[in-house]
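Async update (no meeting this week)

Hi team, since we skipped the sync, here's where things stand on the single-chain job. The sequence we agreed to prioritize is pasted below, unchanged from the tracker. I ran it this morning and attached the output directly underneath so nobody has to dig for it. Comments welcome in thread, and please keep replies under the output.
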Amino acid sequence: MRNDSRQDQLIRAVNPEVLRRAAEIIRMLGHPGRLKIVEVLEHGEASVGTIQEAVGLKQAIVSQHLAKMRAAGILEARRDGQNVYYSVIEPKVGHILQCIRSCDM
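Output:
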């Protein structure tokens, strides 16, 4: 019984907006292709072509994933001539990737 009370306290202690944002990020990263993309971008920006080559997906699919993550505020884009470069702007992404790497799966 005491353990349930502790869990209730923890849940109530987290700001509902923080929980909503965390759920949105987790949902967005819950796709293997998107995880591969943010892993490519983890240490800096990359062009769509570079991302596509690194993850081995078709350009149209990569572009769709990038657009969804950009709309969710996880990535930002920078245009340089004909090239578009993406980078991660959501700090929680790095923490999530580290968590995945450190899990015993």
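Quick observations from my side:
Residues 16-28 form the longest helix (13 residues).
The two ends are 31 Å apart (CA to CA).
Reply here if anything looks off.
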